[in-house]
Structures are given as C-alpha cells and as structure tokens.
Design brief:
The complex is a heterodimer of chains A (235) and B (405). Chain A is an alpha/beta fold and 235 residues long. Chain A has helices at residues 48-55, 78-88, 104-113, 119-132, 148-160, 178-195, 206-209; strands at residues 6-17, 20-32, 37-42, 63-68, 71-72, 89-92, 166-170, 198-202, 214-219, 222-228. In chain A, 33% of the residues lie in helices and 28% in strands. The radius of gyration of chain A is 17 Å and the shape is globular. Chain B is built from 13 helices and 12 strands. The chains are: A alpha/beta (235), B alpha+beta (405). The complex binds adenosine-5'-triphosphate and magnesium ion.
C-alpha cells in the first residue's frame, strides 16, 4: 500500500486553562490518502478545528504520532514545519484571513514570496490562479472591496498557488450564504478533480459535507464514524 | 527570500498602513526633536554665561609679596615703595609671554561728591590695567599714559560707586574729593557685575597710579601687581616667566622659597567650572527627561499595533514564513521607521531651535553629539519595541498567533 498523505496514530491534544484540562482531541487515528476529498463533521466543540490545526502543523500534538507524507511531524524543527506548510499544505479559514490593505494578487502571491520566487513570476502565477477562481478582473482590488464569497475565492487561490498536496479548509463556507457556499464547494471539488489536490473540509452542514467522497464524524474529541459516500454531489 | 525582498516587503508593509507608520514616525520625531531643541537652547545659554564670565577677563595674574618663612619662623620683608613699579615694568619688559603689567595700590577711602559721600575702594593703576582686565568706559574715556605722566587729577568710576555718589546723574565731568583733593571723573566703566565670589567689581574708583600715590596713598608701599599674558600664551607659561624673573630680581638662592605669590586664573576657573557643572547637570537632566518621554511615546505607538501585527505574523507563519523571514521584515520596518523618524526629528529639532533663537532672541547651539545620542536612543527604543513583539509572536505556535487577542 502507498504511503498515506496523512496518518495520525492515537493523536491527543489537551488545552490547559488555569489548571483545568480540556482534552479537545482524544486519541484520533486517521489515514487520508493523497488526493482524497474528506469532510470532517461533528457537533460544536467536538474538536474538529483543533484536529485541523494539528493536521496543518499550526499546533503540536501532546501525544501520539503524526506522519505527513511518511515524515514524522513531531520530529521536525520549526523551520522544517514552516517549509512543510509553505510547500505542501494550503489553508482556507472561515474568516478568510487576507492581509488588509494589500492587493488581491499580492495576497495570493505571498506564499510564493516565502519560497523566494521573484515578484514578476509570483504575480504571474497568482494572476493565473485568480483567473481560475473567476476573479481575473479584480487583481488590483483590496480584500475589503470584495464580497465574502469573493474573498474566500481569493483565499482558495492563495491556498493553491504553491500547488500543495492538500488544502485544509475549516468551515470555509461558515460565513457565506447557501448559494455562495455551494459555489465555493464546487470550486474545491473542481480543484480536487483536476489538480488532484487533497481536500479536507470541516463543516456543520450536511449538504456541504455531501461534496466529499468520505465523511469523518467527531464526537468529544474522537472519531465516531468514518464513511465513504457512494454518490457525492455532482459538479 | 533574500535581503532585498525582505526590505521590499518591509517598505511595502509600511506604505500599506500609512496612519500607523505616520504615528510611529511622529513619536520618534517628537522625541528626538524635543531633545535636540532643548539641548540647543540649554547649550546656547551655557555659551552665553561662559562668554560673560570670560568677558570679565580671566586671563590675568595677580602678584603680591609675602616675605619668607624659614624654619617655621615668618620674617616680614620690607618692600621699598617703588619696588612694585620697578617689578611691574621689568615684568612687562622682560617676560616674553606677558602683554602688560601694572602695579596697583588699593585703599579704602571716604569719597565725597556734591550729592553725598560714600566709602569705597579707591585704586591707583597704570593705564594698561584697563587692558589687563579688559575694562572699558561706557561713558567718557579711560585715563592715559599722558594723564599719568602729568599726574592728572582724574578718575574712572565703577557703576556701583557712581550710583552711590551721583544717583542717576551722569558722573562724567563731575568732581569727587578724596583726602580733600578734587578729581574730575572722566569715565564711567562698563558694568562687570558681581563675581562668582560675591565681590562687586563695580564698587571701585580708579586713579592714575602716580596721582594716586602722591595725593591719596602717600608713600605707602604698593600692593598687588596685575599682569596679562600675550594672546595664545598659556597663563602657566607667563606665570613661570614672572616667577623666574622675580626670583632673579630678589636674588633668591635655589634653596630659598619664593617671597611672593602669583595667583592665576585657577581660582576663578574653579568657580567657572562649578557654574558650568551645574549647567551641564541641568542640561543632562533636561535631555534625559525628553528622551525618556520620547521613548515612552515611541514604545506606546509600537505596542498599540501588537495585536494586529501578531495576527498578521500568525497568518504569515501559517502560509509558510519561518521565524527569520518574519523577524527580518519586522526588524527592517523598525529600522526604516527609526531612520526616517531620526532624520525628520533632527530637522524638527534644528528648526525649533532656530524658531526659539529668533522669536526670543536667545542663543542656541546644536549639539551634534547629543543629536547622535538622541537618535541612537530612539532607534534602540523603536527597534526594541518594534521588534520585541514580533519576536515573541514568532515564538508562538502559528495558531496561537493567529488567534491572538
Ligand atoms: N485555545 C483554546 N484554549 C482552550 N480551550 C480550547 C481552545 N480552543 C478550543 N478549545 C476547547 O477545545 C474543545 C474543542 O474545540 P474546537 O474548536 O476544536 O471545536 P470544534 O469542533 O471546531 O467546534 P466548532 O464547530 O464550534 O468550531 C472545545 O471544548 C473548546 O472549548
Ligand atoms: Mg471549529
């Protein structure tokens, strides 16, 4: 069997707030193959976001193992983690998290700057991705001049500009209306199919989760169900 | 990401947030500007005091006879009446470092004018005494070599004595009587003010030495000789020349002590130094307080944006920036801010000093050394408080920085 893209073994994460321990992720073992489209669902507070942060190397686990493309993440230095996030992982946040007062094209190009790609080349690649997400005519705009759905497309373009192995999206449609949400999900689905990039989406909504080929359900920091859907929503 | 990219990113980031940038620069500008302007004013004042002290004339020497003490027994040496005159003339003639020397004799006397009488110091001097002490007449004239040769009955009067004897009446042309002898006042001296020892240099009346000896002091042996060094000759050199000459004239053996004393400026210099020290202390405290205030301002403005910037750092880390790249950017931003702020602050300080100089007619003097210290300090504070939060944020897990509140 191929090395999975993501493999966690008995992963734990406990928050400590003034002597009180809040176990948010309690022994999750999960494998995600390259190019998979996975939805993570579950009640509020069940540990989905915490688990996503672990997957994205934004936070470290307390216990257990986490391998990304076969490499033990716990053993990577901060610099190696930064490198991994930069080259192999793309993020899409619920609140978009674009740099204010910075043009759309520069926002999308930013991850490439940290790879040392020249400005002209950076902008060229950012522009082509923005065209791909349907914002070719907005390159010079600033984030606050765009609608929520448009901002999230920018964030998706930014996540994809480095051609990562996986895009991690924590409630990417949480701030959007239904129509826009479906558009965003279709966009992710296209990227998954055409570029073969893995997608992990956290969501509350069944119709969003339905875009994925596999649903993983969390409850109290544990995986309680892991099902493959037979007929996902068609593009 | 190379150095150029880091700098470009820093400049770009500064340009993006113009208000924040402007406020940060403003803090630095005000801090540095205040220090430079304050110090310029304080230094100007100090210069003025120094010049005023120098104007009193402090490049002269006073020589007087002491007699000898041998084996603990003090022996008075009788001074022949004309010895001071002869010594003074010999000093002026033979000491290459001496510009002028004058014998003097000073006694207290009751002086009478038509308006009243007053007890003051009267003093006989050579005309070159005015040059030695750099005293000038504000009204009338000083007496001359001719006046002395003719033993003219003339006098020059200090402002305090003039006020006591004549009130607000112009003393020049008036008559004063000392020992029943009438003298014409021919000059009113410039006011020299009270010396650092509290002595009133204006409470005095000067007479030609010859007239004074004959008509006022009788044959009293004269006292102190005043001498002045030539321009550029250190006082110590002139002093040593005089000492050697007088020892030779006294025929003192090598084993014998001096039978006279020469007082130089060092006593006055001490007083000057004390005044200057007080000034420096004042100046230093003004500068330190301004710097502190400026520093607190810079710190505040830098810290105000910490939350926003911490989130920005979280995002940059999430998309793959590593610590060095982030710190490089923030360090660059802080340095650029401080350099711009430093230059503008310097300009502001110089401008303010000029405005003060012109509107109050005060003297100001820019201290480049102090400016360097101020800019250096502001840069240190700015870089520290611009950089430290970034450094802390870059130590966080990206998610903690992203969620920072
Ligand atoms: N930074 C934190 N410090 C302390 N406790 C935290 C922190 N973040 C999350 N938690 C706690 O950990 C648990 C899991 O939180 P998490 O955000 O992972 O849930 P979630 O499944 O994403 O919920 P939601 O659907 O509401 O986003 C919760 O009980 C939460 O209160
Ligand atoms: Mg969540």
């Amino acid at each position: 069997m191929d090395t999975p893209l993501i493999r966690t073994v008995d992963a734990w994460k406990t928050y400590r707030v003034e002597e009180i321990e809040i176990p948010a992720v309690r022994g999750v073992s999960l494998e995600i193959a390259a190019g998979e489209f996975v939805a993570i669902t579950g009640a509020s507070g069940s540990g989905k976001s915490t688990f996503m942060h672990l997957l994205g190397c934004l936070d470290r686990l307390d216990r257990g193992r986490y391998e990304f493309e076969g490499r033990a993440v716990e053993r990577l230095s901060r610099r190696e983690l930064a490198h991994l996030r930069n080259r192999r992982i793309g993020f899409v946040f619920q609140s978009f998290n674009l740099l204010a007062r910075t043009s759309i094209v520069d926002n999308v190009a930013l991850p490439l700057a940290y790879q040392g790609v020249g400005r002209r080349e950076r902008r060229r690649r950012a522009a082509s991705l923005l065209e791909r997400v349907g914002l070719a005519d907005r390159l010079r705009h600033q984030p606050n001049q765009l609608s929520g759905g448009q901002q999230q497309r920018v964030a998706i373009a930014r996540a994809l500009v480095t051609a990562p192995a996986v895009v991690l999206a924590d409630e990417p449609t949480g701030n959007l209306d239904t129509t826009t949400s479906l558009e965003i999900m279709r966009l992710l689905q296209e990227m998954n199919r055409e570029a073969g990039v893995g997608i992990v989406v956290v969501t509350h909504e069944p119709d969003i989760a339905a875009f994925a080929l596999r649903q993983v359900m969390f409850r109290d920091g544990q995986v309680v169900r892991d099902t493959a859907s037979q007929n996902p929503v068609a593009a | 990401m190379g150095l150029l990219t880091v700098i470009a990113e820093a400049l770009h980031s500064l340009g993006k947030n113009k208000v924040r940038t402007a406020l940060s620069v403003l803090g630095i500008v005000i801090g540095i500007g205040a220090v430079i302007a304050m110090v310029a004013v304080a230094r100007g004042a100090q210069r003025k005091v120094e010049r005023e002290i120098a104007a009193i004339g402090d490049d002269w020497l006073a020589i007087w006879y002491t007699g000898t003490s041998r084996g603990g027994v003090h022996r008075d040496q009788t001074t022949p009446p004309n010895q001071a005159r002869e010594d003074a003339e010999a000093i002026e003639r033979e000491c290459s470092g001496v510009r002028a020397a004058s014998p003097t004799n000073r006694v207290p006397a009751q002086v009478i004018s038509q308006y009243g009488n007053y007890r003051t110091g009267v003093m006989g001097v050579y005309p070159n005494f005015f040059d030695i002490r750099r005293w000038n007449a504000q009204v009338g004239r000083l007496f001359t070599v001719e006046d002395m040769a003719m033993q003219a009955k003339v006098a020059c009067i200090g402002t305090t004595a003039a006020r006591e004897l004549f009130g607000s009446v112009n003393p020049v042309g008036q008559t004063i009587r000392v020992n029943r002898v009438a003298f014409e006042v021919i000059g009113l001296l410039d006011s020299k003010g009270v010396g650092s020892d509290g002595r009133d240099f204006d409470d005095i009346i000067l007479f030609p030495f010859t007239s004074f000896q004959r008509l006022i002091a009788g044959n009293e042996p004269s006292g102190t000789i005043f001498a002045a060094a030539k321009p550029g000759v250190p006082l110590a050199v002139a002093k040593e020349q005089i000492r050697q000459l007088l020892r030779q004239r006294r025929r003192l053996a090598d084993t014998e002590e001096d039978t006279f004393r020469i007082m130089d400026r060092s006593l006055m210099a001490e007083a000057n130094a004390a005044a200057t020290n007080t000034f420096n202390l004042l100046l230093t405290s003004i500068a330190s307080i301004s710097l502190l205030v400026g520093g607190v301002g810079i710190m505040n403005i830098m810290l105000v944006s910490v939350t926003e910037r911490t989130r920005e750092i979280g995002l940059r880390m999430a998309i793959g920036a590593h610590g060095t790249q982030i710190l490089g950017q923030f360090l660059c931003e802080a340095i650029v801010l401080c350099v711009i702020g430093g230059l503008l602050g310097f300009g502001l300080g110089v401008g303010l000093a000029q405005v003060v100089a012109q509107s109050f007619q005060w003297e100001t003097e820019i201290s480049y050394w102090m400016a360097a210290v101020a800019i250096g300090f502001a840069t240190l504070v700015g870089v520290f408080f611009g950089f430290y939060p970034a450094w802390r944020a870059s130590r966080l897990n990206p998610i903690d920085a992203l969620r920072f509140e």
